[in-house]
Amino acid sequence: MELLPTLIVDDSNMIVKIVKKALLSNQLKDFEFREDSIYTASDGMEAFEMMGRGLPIKLIITTVKMPNLNGDEFIEILEDTQKLKDIEVLFITSGVDSPKLSNMIRDKILGIIYKPFNPKRFIGLVQELYDEKEETLIKMKKLRELQAEKKKFIYKVTTIYLEKYCNKNIESLKTSQITLLNLLIDDIFGDDDVCESEFVEIVHSILSSFLLDVKIIHTIVSKNILCIIKNSKDVVKVSENRLKFIETFESKIAYVNSVEKLDPKEILKVLTKPLLDVISIAFVKVKNYPKVDSKLFSPHFNYIVDNLNEIDCLFVDDKLEKLLLEHKEITNFIKWMYRFLYNDSLEKSVKIISSLELLKPEILRHLNKAYQDAVLLSQYYCGEIEVYLWKRAKSSKEIVNYLKKSLPKTIPSTYRYLLYKNKISKDKNDEYLALEKQNVLVISANLNTLKKFKDMVEQPLDKWNFFCYAKLSILDIWMNSNIPNKIIIDYNFKGLGYKNGVEFLMLLEKKYPVFKNVIDLKDVYLIAANQQLHEIYKFQKRYKFSVINSNLKHKDIEDGLLYH
User: Fold this and answer.
1) Whether pLDDT at 238 is above 60
2) Which stretch, 185-194, 227-236, 384-393, has highest mean pLDDT?
3) What is the distance between the alpha carbons of residues 99 and 106, in angstroms, rounded to a whole number?
4) Looking at residue 467, which CATH number applies to its domain?
């Protein structure tokens, strides 16, 4: 128990007696009071004189309104004369006499207790205030611990920005400037925690104040801050073993080896079905993408991703990273399974196989199917990566500007990019260019609009087949033997049951399931006038379409189809 020397300041003898009696009951947790360590004063002036004697006061309990010097004025003087350190302050007051304290004093006091009260009620309220303070201190300690790491990170990001974009190396900064930087960080955190979503705004604010103080003129770019944050934080790496083909197969081999008696049919099922199921499940999400030759594409994806990430450091996202890792895993499995089959590893791995001659060829047939399915899966994965990689590229302003400047009038694709970078020769043309063939469906009742698209047969869209129509019956015939890769629809297209082109698209989505794939890939374009943009905004949540201006300038159409 800690002895708590206390000063009671009140011009009412009754209040002094009640407070003293409450303290001497020694019902406060962790503290004790003695008669010889409780001091009293009748007003603030007398209390201030007593404090000047060097009494070891740890707690001051004071009322507000008193003769000569009020309690709040007394406490402010103690603070100004630096005599309040390590002393708790408790105000007692009636509701009408509530102290108007400065923020500095209000933050330092233990609390306020309102009259009337009796000894038991008073000591209970004091205990509550001490408990609240203890809880607050625990919370603040945890908060400071959380803040410490975030402050280090913000400091790191800020200094990287200063060095990279302002030519201000941290080692060249004066001690006063480093102190200023830390003060700005402390000040912006205050007594609050901050979310990662606020980091860009926080760094922007700190840099603004810091550069102003050190007289550096610089336009702060939020995206540059975001890039530094992304590349500086400890990112949780995406698991490299996501599909678990090899582990699935090896675990089933271990199971068969561990069981004494298994029916041959059960052995066949255990060794092959789970593996084929895992491959089948992986097929589900990629089956609607184009199938492309893995040997032509997969060796180059990481090179292109690294290049584009240098142009826009936010280019790589979780989905792209997962696709690349999953495709790498599929490729590793194909190599592993080929060695397993080629080296006749089945008999070496599964002990019982040698005694079941009829079972071995059947298992090998199923495993060979798993191998062939994985090869096919790899091709579809390459198709998805190719589509998604360039969709991501076209969503970046920096990358689009780079492509327009470096590869003008060129369809953004792995082949075109590698050719520009001299990574491949033109003898691969036919194999790559097959992917550039596109069926583009154009829907409009305006014949001039249809003619505009029908005439688009020049580079870079010469591999695109524009099918233009204004009647549903013609579309039905075309859909029997064709699949659209892109859909361009006139917003003014009207008919029975639909008021505009978007509503007609909704009908087509129900009639032709394949349309959903085009919509999901965001390959839908809407022809609309500027004054119609506010009308079509309500459809943007459902359809992420790009808009082609209804004036149909050739460059606008070309840019829209190539870069959006």
Assistant:
1) no
2) 384-393
3) 10
4) 3.40.50.2300
The set of residues, in sequence order, having a beta carbon less than 8 Å from that of 308 and lying 6+ positions away, is: 315, 389, 393, 396, 399
> Do 400 and 266 share a domain, yes or no?
yes
Q: Which amino acid is at 14?
A: M
Alpha carbon distance 339, 335 (integer Å)? 6
Of 179, 177, 329, give the one whose Cα is nearest residue 247: 329
| Nearest of 229, 215, 212 to residue 157 by alpha carbon | 229
Helix segments in 54-118, DSSP class H = 71-80, 103-108
Q: Phi/psi of residue 150, each to 5°?
A: -65, -35
Q: Is position 52 within any domain? A: yes
**pLDDT at position 107:** 72
331 vs 161, 387, 522, CA distance in Å?
A: 39, 19, 28
Both tokens of 304, joined, read 């292109």
Residue 461 has pLDDT above 80, yes or no: no
Q: Say what the pTM is.
A: 0.66
175-182: long-range contacts at Cβ-Cβ below 8 A with a sequence spacing of 24 or more?
177/210, 177/214, 180/210, 180/213, 180/214, 181/155, 181/206, 181/210, 182/155
Residue at 240 is within a domain: no
CA distance 322 to 242: 8
Cα 442-551-461 angle, rounded to 5 deg: 45
Q: Which of 232, 258, 292 is the last residue of a domain?
A: 232
Q: Is the pLDDT of residue 458 over 70?
A: no
At 71 the three-state DSSP class reads: helix
Residue-level pLDDT at 406: 93
**Is residue 251 domain-resident?**
yes
